[in-house]
Amino acid sequence: MLHAHLTTLHVVALILELFADQPELTEPLLAGSGIQAGDLASGERRITRTQELQVCANALALRADLGLQLGRRLHVSSYGLLGYAALSSATFGDAWRLLLQYPALLGTYFKLDLTVEDELAWVGAAEYRHALALERFNVEMCLASLKLICDELLGQPLPLAAAQFAYPQPAYVARYASSFACPLQFDAARNAFAFPAEWLQRRLPLADPVTHLEMLERCRKQNAEFTTRQAWLQRVRAELASHLVEPPGLEALAQQMHCSPHTLRRHLQELGTHYQELLDELRFERAKTLLGQDDWPICRIAEELGFSESASFRHAFQRWSGVAPSRFRA
C-alpha cells in the first residue's frame, strides 16, 4: 500500500500512558517510528499508520494483551465529533448507522459492519490489510473499543450473547472477560461480537435532536474535507515515492501538483506535515523494506533512496529510527 492514512497521536499517547510508571521505556517504545516524545505535546501533529503501528509493535513486545488494554481506554469521546454525534442520536441503532456511515472519521483499520442474524445483531471487523503480525492486536483493540462505545452510548453495559475471533485462543484469554463477558469462540470464521437485536431500538439517554443535527452537519463537513485532503495527499506522496532516487524539490513538486509552492506548503502545513517530513517518511518506509532483504547492501539502499553517500543515509536512518541501519537489519 503506497499511502498510509494520517492519524492523530491518540493511540501513541495512550501507549505511553500505559507505561508511564516506566519512563525509561519511552525511547524504546518510540524507536523506529520517527516520533519524538516532544511531539506528544502538539495537538496538531499527524502521523502515518506506519508510524502508529511501529509504536504498537514495540509496546506489544512488552505486553501481550496490549490490544485489550488500549481498547478499554478508547472511549466514545476519543472519536471526536463523530462520537458526540453518536451520543446524541435517538436510538442505539441510529448511532450505529451513523458510525458506519463515516469510516474515515472512525479511523479504523477494518471494514466494520452491523448485521442481524435471527435475533442477534453482530458487530464485525473484517478486511484487515496492514501489518499482519499485528492483526490480533488490532482486532482486540478495535472490538474492545466498540464494546466500550456501546456501553457508553447506552449508559449501561450492553449484554453480549457471543464473541468470535478468527485466530487461536491466546494465553491471556482470561483477560477477555473485562470486555467480552460472554461465550468466546476462537479460530472462528470472523471477528465479531453479538447482542440481542432488540437493543437496536433502545432510546439513548443523551439523545438530543438539536445537538444531533448540529453534530451531524459538522461530521459531513469534516468528512468531506478529510477525504478530499487525503486524496490530495496521496497524490503528493505518489509523486514523491516514484522519484525517491532523484526527488523533485518543492517547486518542481508544486508544478506537478498544478499549484504554487506557497499553496503546496500551506496545504501540507494544514495537514500537519511538510515537504521534507513526507520525503523522510517515504524514504524511511522504503529503507525498512530494503533492509529486510539481505541481498541489498547498505550502499545500494543509499543510492535507491537518493543519497549520494552511504554515510549520509546512515546518519538519516539513525535520526529516523534511533538505531543504525545495520542494527535495524540485525
Q: Count of DSSP helices?
A: 15
Tell me the span between the first and last alpha carbons: 25 Å
The total beta strand count reads: 7
Number of domains: 3
Biggest sheet features: 5 strands, mixed
Please indicate the percent range of residues in DSSP E strands (runs of 2 or more).
5-15%
**Widest beta sheet: strand line-up:** 3-4-7-5-6
**Class by SSE composition:** alpha+beta
Describe this structure in words.
Keywords: DNA-binding, Transcription, Transcription regulation. This is AraC-type DNA-binding protein. It holds the Pfam family Arabinose_bd. One of its GO terms (cellular component) is cytosol. GO terms for molecular function: DNA-binding transcription factor activity; transcription cis-regulatory region binding. There is one protein chain. By secondary structure, the chain is an alpha+beta fold. The chain has three domains: 1-63, no CATH class; 65-207, no CATH class; 243-329, Homeodomain-like (Arc Repressor Mutant, subunit A, Orthogonal Bundle). It is 50% helix and 8% strand. It contains 15 helices and seven strands. The strands form two sheets. It has a five-stranded mixed beta sheet with strand order 3-4-7-5-6, covered by helices on one side. Strands 1-2 form a two-stranded antiparallel sheet. The mean pLDDT is 90.
